[in-house]
Amino acid sequence: MHILVLGGAGMAGRKFIERLARDGQLGGKPIAKVTAQDVVAAQAPKGAAFTFEAIVSDLSVPGEAETLIASRPELIVHLAAVVSGEAEADFEKGYKINLDGTRFLFEAIRLTGDGYKPRVVFTSSVAVFGAPFHDKIGDEFFTTPLTSYGTQKAICELLLSDYSRRGFFDGLSIRFPTICVRPGSPNKAASGFFSNIIREPLNGIDAVLPVSDQVRHWHASPRSAVNFLIHAATMDLAVVGPRRALNMPGYSCTVAEQIEALRKVAGDAVVARIKRVPDPVIDKIVEGWPRNFDPQRAIALGFKAESSFDEIIRIHIADELGGTFVK
Amino acid sequence: MHILVLGGAGMAGRKFIERLARDGQLGGKPIAKVTAQDVVAAQAPKGAAFTFEAIVSDLSVPGEAETLIASRPELIVHLAAVVSGEAEADFEKGYKINLDGTRFLFEAIRLTGDGYKPRVVFTSSVAVFGAPFHDKIGDEFFTTPLTSYGTQKAICELLLSDYSRRGFFDGLSIRFPTICVRPGSPNKAASGFFSNIIREPLNGIDAVLPVSDQVRHWHASPRSAVNFLIHAATMDLAVVGPRRALNMPGYSCTVAEQIEALRKVAGDAVVARIKRVPDPVIDKIVEGWPRNFDPQRAIALGFKAESSFDEIIRIHIADELGGTFVK
Predict the structure, then answer these.
(1) Residues of A identified as active-site
(2) Is there a domain that residue B281 lies in?
(3) ipTM of the modeled complex
(4) Residue A279 lies in a domain
């Protein structure tokens, strides 16, 4: 099979493609080719038996989507997005990339006219929700985003459900928790500090905590994110029915609990590298974000995540740091 | 003040403009001008003290929105839409008119760059919801439309909330119940029969009932629809906060209860003009529609509707038939 990964140079895309390279197959079907599209060139995964192609293009430019699906990939994993902070800072860019780009893709598929009906996995976000919330957000809670990013994700979910219902493709939107611990350098996501305060101290570097440690949030590891994508790409979607946007499972905890988990796993010296520097802009954005979920539907459909923040930190140390860290 | 009504030649637009002509003011402000835009020419209301202008244009053509707001109307009431049956039959037309047209309007307002910040009232629909439902749909229930029309309305609601949050205009989306009894000829809305089975028999004409009389639905009169628009145009929106889509109040009843109300108000001979001709296409569409609501927020914010179907029929006889009907 041929798999197209949009946003393939990003963290989730890279890890998903590395996993495909390790597995060699997806849902029992051998993988012949993976195409990774992004605005920068994606790196080829090590040891892949499949053909790998990196395409540098901008999905929000008319005509690019048609080119990307010209070879009719059976699976399209759409991870490409301007992150929340950037979409809030640059209104036009956010709508262009996150909404128009996605719509161009969906339209390109619809207009092939040759019976092409790929599986489309779209990564949405818990940013489709906006405060105030109940203690736990249930599967039927309404989407009232408080950011343009969340608005764009919610709109794309609606489009995906309608295009799936009309039979143009077979899609699923999966609402990622905040992915933690994100490897690599900080990006422009307002949620970055949730990872920074774990990743940087484990590397011997100070990290800034811009919010109160009583902020509660919803996390899953990069490893879980890849598992979500694999499951969404291979599961039977007929049982999902027409409601094609799912809250993924995750783990809810406060920043204080994150810090205590770090202390337990890595010790006081590592925790001492977290510096408190309140940032009212970040604080205001995060205030509107969801804190906890009751994702019964996704769990019943076979999606799985971590059950403690210790586990999330240990996965980071195992997958990113070769099992060790700076004490 | 200057009021722009998009879709001003339609039923709700016409009735809203007639009401403005009778009142002469809106929220205590004298009305200087009403512009009614539509794809056909809107009729001037009788006895209006304000200047009336009818513009024939297509909002989904780039540039038209800019022209329509060139004179900076303080209030824009956006009623223009391709109805549900048509948006389902013609996928491209539905998205072009119902989504792109609305987005062009919102973008035109955003891009004025001169501090223009009108009130925007957008008529959405209970079609943003899709079955299965609980007994009554609450204010926090999620939008999972089962039609392209409902998808387009839900997307426009999200855009309106985001543009309002960002301060580009001050908007409110109001989700109309099915408006019953619709005057005039049947339109392409799949919900048309709810009105046809009342209106046609009262005119001495047979009407087709295409669904089971156990179908339950959510109604409000055209008079209430106008009241919703007036209230949405004049109320304090600061108290609404960022969740700018509201379920309007209405009256829930089965088709059997509609028929019994007709019998009570108009007699057996009128009811005998209803002919049962099942239509599986209509049946399938209606199956996914909401039946009942608990619109606490809208009621608390001062929106009002009917409390019986008798009342809905009597309003129709009073407002449309001069107080009489064909026995």
Answers:
(1) 149
(2) no
(3) 0.95
(4) no
Does any CB of chain B come closer than 8 Å to the CB of residue A29? no
Whether residue A50 lies inside any domain: the answer is: yes
Cα-based distances in Å from A315 to A140, A224, A262, A311, B13: 31, 10, 12, 6, 59
β-strand partners of A216: A254
Q: Is A144 on the interface with B (CB under 8 A)?
A: yes
Would the CB atoms of B151 and A144 count as touching at under 8 Å? no
Which CATH number is A166's domain given?
3.40.50.720
Q: Which of B92, B25, B21 is nearest to A162 (CA)?
A: B92
Proportion of chain B in helix, strand, coil states, percent, rounded to 5: 40, 20, 40
Range of the structural domain that residue A127 is part of: 2-177+221-247
- Average pLDDT of the segment spanning A96-125: 97
Catalytic positions of B, written as ranges: 149
Number of domains in chain A: 1
**Nearest Cα to B146, choosing from A252, A218, A241?**
A241
Q: Which of A146, A166, A242 sits opposite B130 (nearest CB)?
A: A242
The SS3 assignment for B75 reads: strand
Helices (H), A118-271: 148-165, 192-202, 222-234, 255-266, 268-271
Task: Please name the residues between 253 and 292 in chain B that touch chain A, using a CB distance below 8 Å.
Answer: none
Summarised one tens digit per residue, pLDDT across range A148-204 is: 999 999 999 999 999 999 999 999 999 999 999 999 887 667 789 999 999 999 999
A188 in reach of chain B (CB within 8 A): no
Q: What is the pLDDT of residues B218-234, one digit of tens each?
A: 999 999 999 999 999 99
Q: Do the Cβ atoms of A216 and A254 come closer than 8 Å?
A: yes
Mean pLDDT value across residues B316-326: 97
Does the distance separating the beta carbons of B140 and A162 come in below 8 Å? no
User: Does B135 touch chain A if contact means CB atoms closer than 8 Å?
Assistant: no
Nearest alpha carbon to residue B227 among B295, B162, B179? B179
* Within a domain: B9: yes
Q: Is A44 exposed, middle or buried (0-12, 13-18, 19+ CB in 10 A)?
A: middle
pLDDT of residue B188 exceeding 70, the answer is no
